[in-house]
């Protein structure tokens, strides 16, 4: 055996979108090459190769002295058999690293620089440390609008791109998206079946939650499979006119999914990266027309109308240059939409609206109808202003529910998991009226309860803005699966419930 040829061992560690290699400290390769922990290495098996970050271990139960361990991500990406011989060598620096260093120093990057950076990210040539540096650099020195355009173009070019024109014969391929930040705002799961029932093609791909207790993909996964191979996703859309899938499994804008894996723990969602992330996914999915929801409120992602208008202009600039027809809706982000916060609770609200349940959250229903109406108005045969009525008729007739059931069956129906078995009600300390609800605080509490990793965890709102409460009245109910999660959520709720109560005559937040 050559000094650098080592049998590969699959190490059952989930490193979440990062290739990690493991070598024992006494391995001759470590000594010969002078490897240190966090060195970047290239692993080759036959014609395949990957770049990885090296972890040096001292326990032979992880890897033996003359073995090369690979994390789950690295093993899957390399595609080698367990026990195959692999060569490990120092990695050559990613070609785009000089451009990254210039961006860290505050320099503006050209189109070719952005394409090089994103290409290296998509091909897993950046470590998590380097990705974090990229994200912070792009946030600390805000991207100008041309850089956002170049980043969006590069993210589209790095992955697959769907083309639905042979199915729509020149008609629009539509989608709806929200920038996020408002708990419970699961309007996409209502818009898609309404629009698809109208006969429009709506291939909805979504990311998983970044900093929220649930994303559309997390919530849809309660009801159906969302990790769909590209061929299956295309067939589902052809058969049903729509889908509600996770974009990562279809390899659409793959660099975005890698960046999200770092943005999530950092809690960063900068305007430039937000625009590039959303528009690259929509264009890669083949959408030609998009309704974009920007909620505005004191605890939303966008806090003022002025900031919303700036963001709208940036979205419109990039969309226009990439040939995407965009309709931006600036909406009320003063409080959560619906009642549930967390995958199972939000799926419950969605299905209640689709079933025309009288107890379904009226705010979720009305917002979804407004947005679905705007999407339907992309239909050349629908007059402006007529979309809302068509959307309402589709919902009330049961056609939207039938379409949703068809999409669920096509994607692969799942039995919804149970709500967390541990509960606690957070109660009002005084009488009064609910003046405001803090979106950020309620999202934190729901995440501490376990959402979205625990689908049945979260917060069920029992009072909304404007409601009168008596002392001791329940404001919301916590659901958790594990005692530690419930304790964390309760500790946060005791610091601040997220509810602002005032006198009955006091005005609500505006």
From TrEMBL:
Read off the InterPro entries from this record: Glycosyl_Trfase_fam3, Glycosyl_Trfase_fam3_N_dom, Glycosyl_Trfase_fam3_N_dom_sf, Nuc_phospho_transferase, PYNP-like_C_sf, PYNP_C, Pyrmidine_PPase_CS, Thym_Pase_Put
GO BP terms, alphabetized = pyrimidine nucleobase metabolic process; pyrimidine nucleoside metabolic process
Which Pfam family, any one of them, does this sequence belong to? PYNP_C
Q: Which PROSITE patterns match?
A: THYMID_PHOSPHORYLASE
SMART domains, A to Z: PYNP_C (SM00941)
Query: Where on the tree of life does the source sit, at the highest rank?
Result: Bacteria
Q: Which reaction does it catalyse?
A: thymidine + phosphate = 2-deoxy-alpha-D-ribose 1-phosphate + thymine
User: Which positions fall inside the Pyrimidine nucleoside phosphorylase C-terminal domain?
Assistant: 433-500
Q: Name one GO cellular component term.
A: cytosol
Q: Report the EC number(s), separated by commas if there are several.
A: 2.4.2.4
**Name recorded for this polypeptide:** Putative thymidine phosphorylase
Q: What species is given as this protein's source?
A: Aquincola agrisoli
